[in-house]
Structures
1.
Amino acid sequence: MGELRWDDVREWFDPVDGCLHDGCVDRVGPGAWLAVVALVREKGWPFEERELSLAVWPAEGFQVNFFESAGDYDVLFDIHVGELQGQGRLDLLSAFLRGLGREFGRPVALAFEGCDPSEVPYLHYDPVVDGFVFDREP
């Protein structure tokens, strides 16, 4: 699969079933948190620093919350799927995930809230094939 299509992911993005989804770029290496902060500043995304987290707006009405990981090896974040309804909004998420994957040269995984994206993702962006892969059926 190359691009994300709303008809393919609609079921996963139903805010009634759970509005927050967890994401990660696994095994980025030491200094992952500083790399996220540098990326946010480089992109010029508006942000707010909070205790052990960074609220970032890669696009108007689309917030990503980054969290410091134990050991500072992974990039951890969550998204609010209520902000990502319809193909146009999904395209914002696609661009964001693709940008992270390219920046770190690692897959970017999404999972339902409370699930470890590195263990049980429902989809991920693969920078090697420059596309999105379903890890399970909707």
2.
Amino acid sequence: MVKFEVEIPVSGYHAGRYDFEELLSSLSQGAQDIVNREIADRAANAEEFADQFCVVTVVGHSDRDDTAGLTSEQRRESERQASRNRADNAVQWLFHQIVLRLQASGITPPTNLAELRRTSIFTAVAGAADLEVKTPASEEDRRENRRVVFLVAHFKP
């Protein structure tokens, strides 16, 4: 069995932003190529070729919510919701990329995530529990904390 595993973080979200495609388009061409090759292509290949399987977990992250007047529970929920929005949007992007690649190959694509045959996509929500920059001193530091991380396992039996 050939197995490939990779962890690909994609950071740089502005506060209150969740659109993965927008974030991806702001990155260098090299970074975009890595995301497309190592995530979207591998997931689509698993759907196209009967000898492959792919599992993708998308972990959403946020920065701390320092809004004045919020309780600690409200802060945590705000951070979790931002993480959830980022992860869910990245999953939507990935599914759309799988559909586009299958259509380009002349294959009728699935209409929803549940119809994927050999690709499984999961989400996880981290909130601000795993900050890259523990004490952010700038907006750039905060954008490093606002990210999604793709955990990809690709198998060929």
